[in-house]
Structure formats: structure tokens, C-alpha cells
Amino acid sequence: MKKIFAYIRSKLSVRVSIGVVFFAAIIFTVALGFLFYESRDAVREEAVSKATRILDNTSLQVEGIMNRVEVASNLNKWLIERHLDDAESMFVYSRSILHNNPDFYNASIAFEPYYFKEKGRYFSAYTKHIGDSIRTIQGGSDNYQYFYADWYLMPFLLDKPSWTEPYMDLDVATNTREMVTSYCQTINDQQGRKVGVINISLSITWLSQTISATKPYPNSYSIMIGRGGTYFVHPDPEKITRQSIFTQTLEHPDPELTDLGHAMTRGEEGMKSMKLNGENCYVFYKPLGKTGCSMAIVCPESDIFRGFNRLQNSVRIIVLVGLLLMLYFFIRIITNELHPLRQLADEAETIASGQFNAQLPDFKRVDEIGQLSHSFGNMQQSLVKYIEELKNTTAQKASIESDLRIASAIQKGMLPDKFPTKTDRDDVQIYASLTPAKDVGGDLFDFYFRDEKLFFCIGDVSGKGVPASLFMAVTRSTFRTVSAHESMPDRIITIMNKTIADMNKNNMFVTLFVGVLDLPTGRLHYSNAGHDAPLLVGVGVGELPCDPNIPVGFMPDWKYTLQEAQIFTGTTIFLFTDGLTEAMDADKNQFQMERVNEVAAKALSQQQQEPQQLINKMTEAVHKFVGDAEQSDDLTMMGIQYIRQQDNIKMQKRLVLSNDIQEVPQLNDFVDEVCQTMGFDEMTTMQIKVAVEEAVVNVMKYAYPAGQKGDVTIEAASNDVRLKFTIIDSGKPFDPTVQSEVDTTLSADERKIGGLGIHIMRQNMDSINYERIDNLNVLTLRKKILP
Amino acid sequence: MTTTIKEQDGKMVAILEGTLDTAAAAETEKAMSPLNNADKDVILDCTDLAYISSAGLRIFLGILQSARIKGRLVYIKGINDSVRSVFTITGFSNIFEFI
User: Fold this and answer.
1) For an engineered disulfide with A301, which of A128, A218, A280, A510 has Cβ 3.0 to 4.6 Å away?
2) pTM: predicted TM-score of the whole model, two decimal places
3) Rounded to a whole number, what is the distance in Å from the CA of B7 to chain A's nearest CA?
């Protein structure tokens, strides 16, 4: 059953056909039902009128026969009464009755005993048909004393002519018995005495045949009952005269039959629909003239409606077959019509499986299916086109994603990944983290050491993603390039700004904080281009005061200001981008500066202000705050803790020279003496001597304008770990540390004479540092003391 | 600082003694100018050279470049370790021949 429903659901043709046929079936059922109902009524009406007509005819016919009997009897009575003197003539009359009326059964003219003396006791002229002839005999005898018979006595007693109840007539001569009913009337003599009886009989069998001759329906039959309900005519001969209409109701009470019997015996006329012998029948009944009999025609309903039922069944079969044929042809036609759709569906499957170039069937039709096919073709073409485009786009996207991954790696590679800790350095420890919101980001941080200075910066490029990352890369490399030969943050930012602004066609900008921490002294020079002010986490938590400078990138002539601060040992400079303060939770609430301060203060109170500890605490707090919300901006933090302990000075010497290179031997003697004091070996002494000479000669040659006299002060100082030479002059600002490096790998022909001095200084000393302090050039050379 | 120039086995030999610092450079360069004029290979005898600064290295480089133009070689002889370290850190050890 389920399979059938599934099949019907899967077949549009079957569904539509069943729907149409079902609808047609309903219409047929209603129409035919109405028609059958009306027809049935008409048939019933027809049956009633037909049966009534037959009943009337039969009744008339019976009455006609009876009338003839009565007329014949009356005519002969008149003749007989005129000729009562002639016994022999009675035979003639008797015979003439039957002769004139061949359908009469017999006729007798019987007289009182000894009426005709010469005839003896019995005289009855009795005529009866024997075959085709008529026989007339004298019927009375000792064996048959007719004057005791009912038919003879009845007219005497009733004193009027009457019809007898049927009785058995016995023809003694031929010993023939026949059920008859007789019309009897007395013969009166001239004195009015009753002298005999004229009896004319009708055969009940004949009467019954006459009545039953006309049948409205093949299985219909007639019955006739007498006054008391006795059957005179009945299809079952056994019942005739032996049973009445009420007989069977005694055993099996049947109110309908009883009613019918009463109605008939009362001489009513009518029609009853009832069950007779287990069959629905229509019974039409009517009294038969003066006989007191009543006759009925019983028509079985099945007979009446046989034709009708046959018609009905035929129509039903025709309709059923018609509907089935209709269903079949509908399914065939729709399936045929839908066949192209099936083809299209198959082709669609083919296309769906990836064969976009499958050939579509061409239906050459202009109907909806043709249109569908056409549209389908268009769709296929578009699909092929779009798939091709999609392929290209996907390939491009994959390429871009791959590029992005590489770019991300390159960008990470640009950022320092080795952070000095207190085990690496004794002056500063650094930690930083950068989490881009996308593959690549616009945040940057950088730091490196040059000449006992820590150069560092943190920045945030406007926007996100690839453009920001490119700008970040430019910013970071510009920082490295510029800071290689500039030591002051304001100068670094100013030059960076000019460089970047000149090539910034897209009006991007970067907020930037650049700091230069002098490691020996803890003096911080910084310049802030619109970036969030860093926190100092040390004695307490406080912001580093920052001048309001504009971000880098859009005003090439802006002069950035320089600021200074003293960083005390143990203090951490905490730098961050606005990704920290503006980190958002799911409800778009921002982390905000208050929370940054709180976390920093808490870290400080727990002695956790070392860069890595502080940044971890801050990261943890931000993650807790943000929860599952998507990171909205790049987040960068950098911590720089100054940890330099000021050492005890062990040795201090000082030499002042004029700016004359002829003073150099004096300088070398001074350095020799210092190295000797320090207990350096020959090689180290040589290295220091050469480096210091180069530094001092540089000052002598370049610090003062030609011909101008000036002094150069050389201080030598040492503690447990370092020997420091400080070379101070009052000449024009001159930073030897920003001289470009000499290439020591060039061949003899390519080597330039010059540029060697700064190289030798860097190579021979552990650090070299220039500062311009109070209009003095201060150059510091340091050498570690090896244990 | 004393500089002695002599010719020996067809080569020009310069014997350098003392400290070749910036102060001594001008005088030494002048003393060594014959090396540039002679079309011969040069031996710089540094056995007794106690010190050299970048000014001295510049003189050496000048001699070398001048000799090379003429297709001649310059050898440095008997250099001590500490002086040699200056040659090493400046990359001069790569461009001179040491004997």
C-alpha cells in the first residue's frame, strides 16, 4: 500500500489522472444516481399503470363472461318457462346454451322430482363439451340426486339467481371431475311456483387460465379468492379451493398478507407493496363484479425492475469501464506530454553530477515545456559560465589566501621575536605581543639596540587588513632606516612623517610612539605622534605625559616635539595600541583605560610588573572581558622594564686636549695608562687605543670649523663590569654613530679611504653612544671587563 | 715613528718602526711616497710597528691601490698580533699579502 502511495506521489501523470477521473466519477455518480432514482419512480409508475390496466381488462373480461352466462341463463329461462309442457325441448335448450357459448363448461336444466311424470323422479337436461362435440344427456339418477346439490338448493333458498361457490362437478358418464362455479336461477311455472333450476357452469381452470393469460411480467401471476378468502385462482393448483388467503398466516403470522386478504374479501380495489414468499412484490387487487370474488396480480419487484436493473448495471459497467479507460488514456497522454520533462530531469541530473556540457534535448515545441527547455538551456549556459567564473574566483581567492598567509608570516618576521630578559641583559628586559584581528594587521612594534641605546616604537595604522599591513611594513622599515642615523625621537618621527606623507596617496596614517632609552642612565627621550600615552608601572601607575602631536602620514611639514623623562630602575614602560582599550565584549562595551590601569595596578601590587607578567595579566583580563566576541581590532602590547643597577665607580681619569691631531700621542699615552690600570692585555689595549683615537680624531677633525680652536675632554671611568670613555666637546652637533658603515668585504680597488674610524670603534668597543646634552656632544664608548 | 725605505732584491722595502697614529700619519705618508713612484713590488716591514690607527691604514691602502694600478704586489712582513687585529677587524687582512 505504501509502495502504491509512493508511486502515485512520484508520478504527476497518475496524480492528475486520478484527480480528474475521481472528479468525473463523482459527477457521474451524482448524475446517474439522480437519473436512476427518477427512472425507478417512472418504472414503478409504469408498472402500476400497466398492472392496473391488465387487472381492469381481466376484470372486464371476467365480468363479460359472467354477463354472458347470466344473459344466456335469462334468455333460456324465458323460453323454458314458455315450454314447461315439453320435457324433450329442455335438451334442446340445454344444448343450445353450450352451442352458442363454447367457452361455458356445462349447462343443465333440472326439475323438481316427478315434475315430468313420464320422466320419473329425475329429470335434468345436462349438456357438456366432450372434446369438440357437445353431448346432452339426462343427468339425474339415484347416484346423483341433483336436487340435493348446493347449486340446486341455493336459488330456491335465496329466491334469486346467484353464483355458487366453486364446487367439484362430477360427470358420471365420463367420470370427469372439474372445479366449476355456476350461475343458477329457478324456473317458475305460470303460477309462480319454483319447478326447476337452470345451471350454467364455468370451469374454474378455464377461468383461471383466462385470468392468467395476460401477464404484465414474465414472473407475475394472478390469484382469485372467493368471499371467504378461498383461492379460486392460484399458480399452485394444490391451494385452489383447499386453502384460503389466510391459511398460511395461521402458521406464520403475516400482517401484510392478512391486510391484503381483508381488503380483498371486503371487495376493495388497490395496490400494495409487500413481501410475499420472501420476495418483494407489488400486489394489484380488484373485486370481480358480482361474483363476490376478488382477483389480484402479483408482480415481483425483481420482475418490474428487471429491465431497469439490467440498464442500471449496464450503465454502471459502461461508466466504470469508461472511467478506467479515461484513467488509462489520461495517464498515457500526460506521461507522453511530460516525457520531455523526464528527459529534462535526467539531463538536469547529469548536469548536477558535474557534466555541465551535457547536450540538452531540443524539443522544438512552443508550449510551456518548450519554454522550460529553452530556459533550461539558458540556465545551463549561465551555469557553465558562472562555474568557470567561480573556478577562477576560487583560484584567485586561494592564491590571495596563500599570499595572505605568506604576508602574515612576513609581517610576523618583521617584528622582533627575541625578547631580552634579565638573564640576557643587565639593563633592560622587554616583552611584546601582537594579535592581529585578521591574517595581517596594521599594528606594529619594534625595538633594537644601538650604542647602548634602546630604540623602540609602537604604532597603529588606520584601518585593518592588507592595506594597513602594507602601511605598517613601510612604517616599520622607515623607522629602522631613519633611526639608523638619527638618535632623537622627534627627529626620527619628523623624518619618517615627511617620507611617509610624501608617498601617502591614500590618506592613511599611523599613530606612532617612538622612544630612545639611554641604557646607562635611564634617560628616556620620546616623541608621540597621536598614539595612546604609555603607562609607567613602577613606583605607582601613571601615564607618561605626551604632547599633542598629529599622527604620522598626512602633514609632511609637521614638527614633532621631543619629550624627556627619567626611567627609574624597576619601572616598566607599558605601551599598547587602542586594540586594548577598545577591545569589545559581545554587548559592544569597551575595555577602556580604567580597566587597563586597574590591571596594571593589581599587577604592581603583586610584584608582577615585569613585561611578560604584565602583558600576560593584561591579555588574560582582556580575554575574560571579551568572552566569545570576535576580536574587532589588532591588539598590541609592549613592555620595557629598566633594570640597570648603578654600579660603583672604581676608577676615574680625565684628559683635556685641544683640537689638534698632534695631541694624539698624548691621548694614546693616557689610554695606555688607563688600560694598564685596568690590567688589560696587549691586544685589548690595542683595540681600545685605536677606538678611542678614532673617536677623538673624529671630534678634532669635524666638531669645530676649520681653524677654530676648541677642547676635547676625555673621561675614563670604570666599575666592576665596564670601562667607559666619555668624549665631550662643545662643537657643532655631530653624531659619529650615524655614519654609514664601511663595507669590509670589498676588494682592494673598491675600498674607499675613509669611514674606517666608526667601524673600528664599533668593532673594538662593546657599545658606542652619542648624546647631545646642553650644547655638548657627548660620545660614550664602553668596553666590558672580562672576568 | 721612523720610516726607512730601501731597495732589496728588486723590491722596494719600507721598514716601519714605532707608533703609526694619526699624529704620525702625515709624516709617514710623506716618507713612503717613493714607494708610489717606483715600479716595483713593495714589502712593508712591520716587524717593529707597535701601533696603527685608521690613518695608518689609509696610507697602506693608498700604497696598495697605487701598486695595483702598476700591476705590482704589496707584502706586509713581520706584523705582530695586536697590529694584525686592526687589519683583521677592518677587513684589510683580506686585501693584503702577509709574509
Assistant:
1) A280
2) 0.46
3) 24
